[in-house]
Amino acid sequence: MNMDKESYARYVEARAPRSPLGKNCLWAFLVGGGICLFAEGLNQIFTGLCHFSKDDAGVMTAIILVLCSATLTALGVFDRIAKVAGGGTLVPITGFANAVASPAIDARAEGFVLGVGAKIFTVAGPVLLYGTAAGTLYGIIYWLCKFFIV
To answer: Is the pTM of this model over 0.85?
Structure first.
């Protein structure tokens, strides 16, 4: 079967399964909100019961969220949750922890140096690189604007 690009695009569009947008958005909202609710609960426990400062409670909450995300990734649970929740699991710190832990776990059979060490930032590396570059660029622009805008 010989098709041009437009014919193939119409063929794929006609046969691709439709995504239940409303249901997916609801699940993303509920799971993402649940992660945020869990984090806020931890934060309240650390500030209220443990009498940590607000900054220390935030650090402890972040550490626990990263630990939970990496553990659930290692156990294969995070992927099953992400299939249902979609973007809801991308709440920044848990999604980033999953993006770092997943390639490291997949590459562990290749050893610590050539496997884990070489592939741990396969997914997160571009985020770090371009996030840092964009932050630097925006900082320079902001600094320059201070001279020209009074």
So the answer is: no
